[in-house]
Amino acid sequence: MHLPFALIALCAHVAVLVRVLIYRRNGARHRHRVSWFAWILVAAAGGASIELLLHAGSVGFFDAATAVLLAMAVCGTRGNVARLLRSE
């Protein structure tokens, strides 16, 4: 029962990882705090992916749902971490 949740969470973490890594600035300013946050996001998504590969049995519905919501947010901003942090 936990394997489908683990696969969903793994795909979501890899999507976050890839989307942030392939982001192109296209003339946007470089902000040090945002780049550090993006680095932390990549490290967390990569670490979570590795942990899921090693311990797939410990993933529940809410872990998978959280990963999918994070992936939706990152893909919705097309990998722009500054837009994730901006408050409107």
UniProtKB/TrEMBL annotation:
The chain crosses the membrane at residues 6-22, 34-54, 60-81. InterPro entries: Phage_holin_3_7 (IPR008473). Keywords: Membrane, Transmembrane, Transmembrane helix. This is Phage holin family protein. It comes from Burkholderia theae.
